[in-house]
């Protein structure tokens, strides 16, 4: 399993829901989780490993415990507004301020098929919005105002060459 970086077209494709969870899917999800830790990330979405399914692995506090595999996640509520710096494993060397909701409620399925409802705020809420954007083929650089887009233009060109 390898990380896909910009401008790989899989990153701009809308991922499809997983209809059932097979052993092969679980194996892939666990590999994704390992890769996330290996790369020092706090979250990784299917498209980032070339898997165009609605799957996310996440561990925002880095404690390596609790649910870290999420299937078909969906934001059902969002509230407030927060600005903070963001980066992405698939966009090495780029960081920029992104406006997001401050809090979100996410519904997802765990690896055992259990329905989860997650109340997220702060970094966790930001990570959820970032990862679900990935599932919709959206990168954080797509959300930047024109001036910030100008600032990263050179680096994007480097990544493209
Ligand atoms: Co990302």
Question: How does this structure look, described?
Answer:
The protein has a single domain, classed as Peptide deformylase (Peptide Deformylase, Alpha-Beta Complex), CATH 3.90.45. Helices cover 28% and strands 26% of the residues. The strands form two sheets. The chain has a five-stranded antiparallel beta sheet. It has a two-stranded antiparallel ribbon with strand order 4-5. The radius of gyration is 15 Å and the shape is globular.
The percent range for strand residues is: 25-35%
Task: Tell me the count of domains.
Answer: 1
Q: Which homologous superfamily in CATH is the superfamily?
A: Peptide deformylase
What share of residues is helical? 25-40%
At the first level of CATH, the class is Alpha Beta
Count of DSSP helices? 3
User: What characteristic shape results from the CA principal axes?
Assistant: globular
Chemical compounds bound to the protein: cobalt (II) ion
Query: Nearest-angstrom radius of gyration?
Result: 15 Å
* Residue windows where pLDDT falls under 50 for at least 5 positions: none
Mean pLDDT comes to: 97
> Would you identify the CATH architecture?
Alpha-Beta Complex
* Number of DSSP-assigned strands: 7
Largest sheet: 5 strands, antiparallel
Order of helices and strands: HEEEEEEEHH
Distance between the termini: 23 Å
Strand order of the largest sheet: 1-2-3-6-7
- The helix/strand class is alpha+beta
Give me the CATH fold name.
Peptide Deformylase
């Amino acid at each position: 399993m390898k990380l896909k970086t910009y401008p790989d077209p899989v990153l701009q494709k809308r991922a499809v829901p997983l209809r059932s969870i097979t052993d092969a899917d679980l194996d892939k999800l666990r590999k994704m989780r390992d890769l996330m830790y290996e790369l020092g990330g706090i979250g990784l979405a299917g498209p980032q490993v070339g898997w165009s399914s609605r799957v996310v692995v996440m561990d925002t506090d880095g404690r390596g415990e609790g649910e870290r595999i999420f299937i078909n996640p969906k934001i059902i509520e969002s509230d407030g507004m927060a600005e903070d710096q963001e980066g992405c494993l698939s966009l090495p060397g780029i960081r920029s301020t992104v406006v997001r909701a401050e809090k979100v409620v996410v519904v997802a399925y765990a690896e055992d098929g259990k329905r989860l409802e997650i109340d997220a705020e702060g970094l966790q809420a930001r990570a959820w919005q970032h990862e679900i954007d990935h599932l919709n083929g959206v990168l954080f650089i797509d959300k930047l105002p024109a001036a910030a887009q100008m600032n990263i233009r050179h680096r994007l060109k480097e990544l493209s060459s």
